[in-house]
Design a protein that fits this description.
The chain contains eleven helices and seven strands. About 35% of the residues are buried. By secondary structure, the chain is an alpha/beta fold. Helix 4 links the parallel strand 1 and strand 2.
Length: about 280
Amino acid sequence: MLGSGGVKRQETELVKEQAHILIGKKLQGSQGRNCDGKRWPGVLRTMDVRGRIIAGTVLLAGAVVTGIFGMMIQEETLQEVNSYITSVIYKEEALENSPKIALTFDDGPHPYYTEQLLDGLKERGAKASFFVLGKQAQAYPELIKRMQDEGHLVGNHTYNHIQLGQGNREEFKEELIQTSEVLTELTGEETQYVRPPYGSWDKSFETELMMFPVLWTVDPMDWCSDDVSGIVQRVTKKTRENSIILMHDEYKSSVTAALQIVDILQEQGYEFVTVDEILFD
């Protein structure tokens, strides 16, 4: 049997759980979704953070009064929950106000280094965008599915890394279509974003294929250097709010540098998001 202290702890944890349902542990700004990806009910989608906490507190108080939790909540328990909710909100306000940047990777997935990278990103709570080659996606489908499952963006980088030129428009287009078909089969979703190799692009593809090109603002040239510290320094010196960082996940040095970059820039207050949040938020 539980003593009074054990019962009190159970009550407190139950109320905290209900508070999470009402206000969400991680708010997603104007997207109107909570940390589980579910949409906020009704009017909560239109509220700012403080509005949501006020609404959540009111709902929580009403639930206590009407006995939804099936127990009497002592005054000290309510005080503890109130302090807990307040701390959550202050943390979420800081998160919402954090400058956002996007880390993007081309040419993968690589059977070993991409897996290392995904492990490191997951450990750090950072999101990234992967512009993959169709042939690599077919070879390592489990990595594409893991990218999607862990909240990263998966984009198109052609099938064989072909560069668009004056005489190969149709071949380039077919590679985009072929890669999108591979990715749709693996993810169940249409591929909306493309990183054209070397930045060569024909704007008419945007309406023909309903795809949006994603270029970059920070390029450390990691593909031609194994100097980890140099790559890290080039990125951290040039990165600003809304930067789109270009890297490659097929090199050990690039993956090592990328995780160091995440550590340094998170310490500086940056939040790593998928590139669509930079482009359209």
